[in-house]
Design goal:
Blueprint (H helix, E strand, L loop, with lengths): L2 H4 L1 E7 L5 E8 L3 H9 L8 E6 L16 E4 L7 H9 L3 E7 L8 E5 L5 E7 L1
Parallel strand pairs: 2-3, 3-4, 4-5
Antiparallel strand pairs: 1-5, 1-7, 2-6, 6-7
Length: 125
């Protein structure tokens, strides 16, 4: 199977063996984005929200971390802050993720930790 057949758009280190989860993709760049989430209804809904961040040391997700369906970080390792917090809060996470294509905000993605790597798949654009 090719990546396009499986829907795979990224791969990284799984923070822990969480199985698979689905959520709506949302790129977050800083505290202002998190405040916007807290002011709106973006955290509600089914599926939940998969936050995508660059900085594995970022702490700005703190106020909403336990409400996330998952987190994808394009930097760091599972020993980075975000990997540790992912395990502590039991929020599915894929860390040090290399994205072949970044899904648009609002796309439904699947985070899969059933193999040796964490895999991000696009479910519906």
């Amino acid at each position: 199977m090719t990546d396009s057949e499986t829907g795979e758009v990224g791969r990284g280190q799984k923070a822990w063996d969480f199985g698979t989860v689905r959520g709506r993709w949302r790129r977050l760049e800083g505290p202002e984005d998190v405040l916007g989430l807290m002011d709106g209804d973006d955290l509600d809904g089914d599926p939940g929200l998969v936050a995508v961040v660059r900085d594995a040391g970022a702490t700005f997700l703190g106020p909403v971390f336990d409400e996330l369906a998952g987190v994808v970080c394009t930097g760091g390792t599972i020993r980075s802050h975000i990997g540790i917090i992912s395990r502590e809060y039991r929020v599915p996470g894929i860390i040090g993720t290399t994205l072949a294509v970044e899904p648009p905000d609002g796309a439904v993605v699947e985070l899969d930790a059933t193999g040796s790597d964490g895999v991000v798949r696009l479910v519906e654009p």
